[in-house]
Design goal:
Blueprint (H helix, E strand, L loop, with lengths): L1 E8 L5 E9 L3 E3 H18 L13 H9 L8 H13 L3 E5 L2 E3 L5 E3 L6 E5 L7
Parallel strand pairs: 1-7
Antiparallel strand pairs: 1-2, 3-6, 4-5, 4-7
């Protein structure tokens, strides 16, 4: 098991948040990293450990309704959210950079070092465009 620090960055290069995730081995694919990130975020969200700021977990309208009535919302399905995130990567809705090099395939594999830097850069659709 390897701990990996990932960052969410803005186009200007500002770090929006930093997360630690666990990856199974020292060799990982982009698919492994995205999946590990989603599972970590969903786990925190479902446990209500803290306020989770996530790109991959959307607040469902049903949850918004339950929040207004004070009921506990249903747990988020990590596997389903993982599929959504992987599809979003394939549709270029966000980019992943490993050591400042953009990776373009979910199956691209790399060796994780203690200083490996993984960054996520989310694209925001233009309004009206």
């Amino acid at each position: 098991m390897q701990t990996l620090i990932i960052q969410d960055e803005s186009f200007a290069g500002s770090i929006l948040q930093q997360l630690e995730i666990e990856v199974e081995s020292e060799r990982a694919t982009v698919r492994d990293i995205i999946t590990a990130r989603v599972y970590a975020e969903v786990g925190k969200y479902n446990q209500k450990v803290d306020k989770v700021r996530s790109w991959f977990i959307g607040i469902h309208p049903k949850e918004q309704e339950l929040n207004r009535t004070g009921q506990r919302p249903p747990e988020v399905d990590a596997e389903q959210q993982s599929y959504i995130a992987l599809r979003a990567f394939q549709e270029n809705r966000f980019f992943v950079f490993v050591d400042n090099r953009q990776v373009e395939s979910l199956d691209e594999e790399f060796l994780l070092q203690p200083d490996t830097k993984v960054s996520f850069l989310k694209l925001t659709p233009l309004v009206g465009g």
